[in-house]
Amino acid sequence: MKKLLAGFMALAVFGLVFGAVAAYQGTPGPNPEVERSTAMAYAKGMGHGNGGMMAGEGTPYMGLGVKSANLTEVSVDPAEVTDYLAQVSVEEFTNNRGITVQKLVYEGDHVGKVVGDYDLTQLSVYAAYETSNGVKVFLAYDGDIVGFVFMR
């Protein structure tokens, strides 16, 4: 019994030492969550399908809650989106990673968000999709998706 217990203890110590050595592979590299170029590559459809921010054939999947293959792209008037954004109130906060998030509220309902400290008048329409809850408009700044807004 003592030999069995000693064997298990030796195996546990060996596992801890081997695991610690295997886990430390030198200095850590850059934080991939901070590098926007990688995230934007996925947002533009250059990443893996179905697993990243894109799914299917170039259809954004940013919290739609439905399979993106069932979505229909629609055209919206950019002036109409700009007027809608002018009526939206913004609740701004900074998350624990230090990134500014603007929560968009329309008549008491949360209708979208913008990640970053952008002026809403500077955003353009990237794409719009018909969903069961209305039209989801993806907002872009210099061609990069930075947020969305639901227009009901």
What report would you give on this structure?
- Strand 5 and strand 6 form a beta hairpin.
- The protein has a seven-stranded antiparallel sheet with strand order 3-7-8-9-6-5-4, with helices on one face. Strands 1-2 form a two-stranded antiparallel ribbon.
- The chain has one domain.
- It is built from three helices and nine strands, in the order H-H-E-E-E-H-E-E-E-E-E-E.
- It is an alpha+beta fold and 152 residues long.
Indicate the structural class. Answer: alpha+beta
- Total strands: the figure is 9
CA(first)-CA(last) distance: 71 Å
Low-confidence segments? 34-42, 44-57
Mean pLDDT: 76
Q: How many individual domains?
A: 1
Please indicate the percent range of residues in DSSP E strands (runs of 2 or more).
25-35%
What is the C-alpha radius of gyration, as a whole number of Å?
23 Å
What share of the residues lie within helices? Answer: 25-40%
Our count of helices gives 3
In N-to-C order, the SSE pattern is HHEEEHEEEEEE
Gross geometry? elongated
Q: Largest beta sheet, briefly? A: 7 strands, antiparallel
**Widest sheet: strand ordering:** 3-7-8-9-6-5-4
What's the short story on this structure?
The protein is an alpha+beta fold and 152 residues long. The protein is 26% helix and 33% strand.
Main traits of this protein?
elongated; alpha+beta; two-stranded antiparallel sheet; 7-stranded antiparallel sheet; single chain; 152 residues; 9 strands; 33% strand
List strands and helices in order, with pairings.
Elements: H1 2-23, H2 36-43, E1 54-55, E2 59-60, E3 72-73, H3 78-87, E4 89-94, E5 100-106, E6 109-115, E7 124-131, E8 134-141, E9 144-151
Antiparallel strand pairs: 1-2, 3-7, 4-5, 5-6, 6-9, 7-8, 8-9
